[in-house]
Amino acid sequence: MTAFISEFTLSADAAAQGPTIAIKDSIDIAGYPTTGASRALADAPPASAHAEVVQRLLDAGWRITGKANMHELAFGMTGINDYTGTPVNPQDAARIPGGSSSGSASAVGLKLVDAALGTDTGGSIRGPAACCGVIGLKPTFGRVSRHGVAPRESTLDCVGPFTRDIATLIAAMAAITPAFDAATAKRSNANANVAIVSVDADAAIGRGVARAVRVAEFASRVIELEHMKDAFDAGLAVINVETSRAFGHLVDTGKLGADLDARLRAAAQTTQTQLDAAERVRRAFTNAVDHALDSADVLVMPTLPALPITIEAARNGTSVIAMSSLIRPFNLSGHPALSLPIPIEGSTLKAGLQIIGRKGADEQVCAVAAHFEAALAAS
Q1: Which Pfam families match (predicted)?
Q2: Backbone phi, then psi, for 126, in 5-degree steps?
Q3: Which of 19, 27, 171, 303 is the least buried, fewest Cβ under 10 Å from its Cβ?
Q4: Longest CA pairwise span in the chain (Å)
Q5: Which residues on neighbouring strands pair with residue 156, listed in sequence order?
């Protein structure tokens, strides 16, 4: 299944019976190397200490069952990895599982674990969640500790959980960040004011989002959100610069996969002028999202603009960069964003409903998602 790079059982208490969780291989587990699913880091020494989120999970009684596979160095959207293998998409094995937290999403969707941790720098939790038909949360930037997470420095990256239900996601969040108010998050919010963001997405997915809002009986209106396209481009510039700084030296090893080698070489060409322009867009888009949330409790839109393409199409060169068009902007702005699976007409696959909240209001995002989940289950 290749959802895991390595499997083991780790708990604070050998007799622990808590929920199981897999940890993306960009997050340190003491005694195990953090390789980023890359041949270039295959000889990395074992981590000397747990990442803070790992230690918190163990302290809360969770059982870690292994290191989850991923797109090499967390720098890609497909999840295809010719070194460690490509995780299976639980919805359709012929399709990509999404990147970069592909193994985490796959393991949850295949019911190998109750939950998994991933990281999201440009949509890398929400994208795989939507591809694999599971729930994934990118918390507010800075809400969850990144101590012991690669890359060490990032203005975009967030650690967050994958689960099959909101209750387990809330439990995982309560474990990894001590200030998370689980009681508030569990309080299904039926009275939220929802703004449906008008975006370019497949018609069936757009109708699925509209149906979910209708079934949940939320008060809603359709809005335009300024600077989305500019924020997407700016997010690409920032991730290119920051990933090049972190991993660009590995190009000289000759051990990177062909796609990573090409992407890192291209990323190194990003200029300071492009980065400065991206930071201006970051401020403008953040203000636009904050302004939209002044008159709405959450924003909703599709997670991905289309269903995931096949592995064959990806290998044959079909571009996947547009996959992140609706998710990458919220890494730039830092707002919490959750992907919830929703049914769409004409397909056995589920798409993703993205729910975006105010900074620090991760609990409210979960509460709204809980109401969507209950309403859709009853429909």
Answers
A1: Amidase
A2: -65, -35
A3: 19
A4: 56
A5: none
Query: CB-based contacts of 277: which residues, under 8 Å, 6+ apart?
Result: 234, 237
**Length of the chain in terms of residues written:** 379
Nearest Cα residue to 98 out of 339, 368, 379, 344: 339
The model's pTM: 0.98
What's 92-119 look like in SS3? CCCECCCCCCHHHHHHHHCCCCCEEEEE
Query: What is the chain's percent helix, strand, coil content, to nearest 5?
Result: 40, 20, 40
Q: Tokens standing for 221?
A: 């209106």
Cα–Cα distance measured from residue 184 to residue 202, given in angstroms and rounded to the nearest whole number: 34
State the Cα–Cα distance between residues 260 and 76, nearest whole angstrom: 8
Burial of residue 11, with CB atoms counted within 10 A of its CB: 0-12 exposed, 13-18 middle, 19 or more buried: middle
The residues carrying an active-site annotation are 24, 100, 124
Phi-psi region of 85 (alpha: psi -120 to 50; beta: other; left: phi over 0): left
Residues with Cβ within 8 Å of 2's Cβ and at least 6 positions away in sequence, in order, are: 69, 84, 85, 86, 87, 88, 103, 106
What are 26's two structure tokens? 């960009």
Q: What is the pLDDT of residues 220-233, one digit of tens each?
A: 999 999 999 999 99
Residue 359 and residue 286: Cα distance in Å, rounded? 10
CATH of the domain at 75: 3.90.1300.10
Beta bridge partners of 352: 341
User: How many alpha carbons fall within 13 Å on the CB side of residue 340?
Assistant: 30
How many structural domains does the chain have?
1
Q: What is the DSSP string of 4-54?
A: EEEEEEE-SSTT----EEEEETTB-BBTBB--TT-GGGTTPPBBSS--HHH
The string of pLDDT tens digits covering residues 19-66 is 999 999 999 999 999 999 999 999 999 999 999 999 999 999 999 999
Q: Which domain holds residue 251?
A: 4-378
Strands 20-24 and 4-10, bridge-based pairing: unpaired
What are the structure tokens assigned to 67, written together? 């290191």
* Helical (H) or strand (E) element with 62: none
